[in-house]
Amino acid sequence: MPQKKPFITLAQAKEIAADIPTPFHLYDEKGIRENARRVNAAFSWNKGFKEYFAVKATPNPYLLKILQEEGCGVDCSSYTELLMSEACGFKGSDIMFSSNDTPAQDMKKAYDLGAYINLDDLTHVAFLEKVAGVPKTVCCRFNPGGVFELGNGIMDNPGDAKYGMSEDQMAEAYTRLMAAGAEQFGIHSFLASNTVTDDYYPKLAGILFELAVRLHKRTGAKIKFINLSGGVGIAYRPDQRSNDIAAIGEGVRKKFEEILVPAGMGDVAIFTEMGRFMLAPYGALVTTVLHQKHIYKEYIGVDACAANLMRPAMYGSYHHITVLGKEDTPCDHKYDVTGGLCENNDKFAIDRMLPEIDIGDIVYIHDTGAHGFSMGYNYNGKLRSAEVLLKEDGSHQLIRRAETPEDYFATFDFSPFFKK
Ligand SMILES: *Cc1c(COP(=O)(O)O)cnc(C)c1O
C-alpha cells in the first residue's frame, strides 16, 4: 500500500514534545499557505471569487489569521464563531453567516458585523426583519430535495437533510426580501460531504447556476454571488486519489461559461466555504504510546483519546497512522490503537497493520487539521489538548495551550477546592 508522509520527522516531534507535552494537534503553516494559494489560483478566472473558511472545522485565531493573509474570509454559524472572527479583524463582506435554527442573538451579531447572512428558511425572512433588519445583500440556502447523484452513484440525500429551502420558497424569500429593501442576492447550497471526485463542485455549480437564471427571471432579483459551500473532500486513505483543485476550478468555469454568461449573468461572484479541503491534511494529532495490552487482540494505548479526535469513534472514519521513526519498518503487526475513555468505540484504528510498536513511540495520526480538535469534548473528564503551529521557518509556536483541571472546573461555583 502507498504510504502517506508525515510533515514532521521523529526528531522534530521529539523537539516539540520536549517543550509541549503530547498529545497535541500540530499544524503545518507551509502546507496551509501553499494549498490556499492553489485554491485561489484555481478560481482566479472569477473576478469576485472568495473562499470563506468554515470556522467550525478549526476555530483557532492563529490559523484564521494565516488564511486571512492568503485572502480568505470566514464562514461562521454561531455567536462565538462570529466573535472569534471579529477579534481576528474579519468584517463585512469577509464574513458569511451560514447558520440554521438560528438564535436571535447570533442573527443580530451577524447583522451588526455587516456579514453576508445566509437564510436557512423562508420563515427566517420575517425573523431577520424582526431581530436585526434587512441588509442590502442577503443569501438564501437551497435544498433541491431528492437524492444527489454523480456519474458514480448516489452521493448524498438532500431530501433527508434539515437545511435550506425549496425553489418556490427561494423565490418567495427573494420577493419578500426585496419588498423589505434588499437589493442583491446570494444562493448557497451544500449537497454532499467529503467528496473525493473532481466532479462535485462542477455538478453543484451547474444546478445552482441554472437555479440562479430561473430565480432571476421569475423574481427580477439581482444575483450577486453563488456559494458552493463545503464538501470538497481529501484522501484520508493512502490508496485514495486526492482532489485536483485546478481541475475542479476549471470544471466550475466551464459551467459558468455555459450557463451564466449566455444569460447575461457573467458578473456573478463564486464563493466557496471549504473547511476540510483547506486544513485537514495540514494537521496531525501527535500522541505517545503509554501501554501495550495482549488479550484476545493486541492493543496499543496512547495518551490521546476520542475526546481529542472524535471522527473514528463517531463515524468509523479512517485516519492514517504513522509511527514516527518507523516509516520504513514493515507493517507486520496488527493492532487496535486506543484512547483511555470508558467507551469501547474509543479507537483510532482497528485491526491496523503497523510496524512493531514500543512504549514511548510517538504516533502521528494524519489529517486531523479540520473537524479534529474542534469536535473535541470533555467526556470522562478528559481535557482538550494543545494546538501547535509548525511555522514556515521550522520553529514551532503554541497556538492554544492544553486545558487544565481549573478550566474543567471553571463553570462550577461549588467549593473553594476548585479555585486556584
Ligand atoms: C461544515 C460546513 C462547511 C464546511 O464543510 P467541509 O466539509 O469542511 O468543507 C461549509 N459550509 C457549511 C454551511 C457547513 O456547515
Automatic annotation (TrEMBL):
N6-(pyridoxal phosphate)lysine: modified positions: K56
Superkingdom assignment: Bacteria
Keyword Lyase recorded: yes
GO biological process entries: lysine biosynthetic process via diaminopimelate
Pfam family, any one: Orn_Arg_deC_N
Coiled-coil boundaries: none
Active-site residues per Swiss-Prot or TrEMBL entry: C342
Keywords: Decarboxylase, Lyase, Pyridoxal phosphate
Domain Orn/DAP/Arg decarboxylase 2 N-terminal: 32-279
Name used for this protein in its record: Diaminopimelate decarboxylase
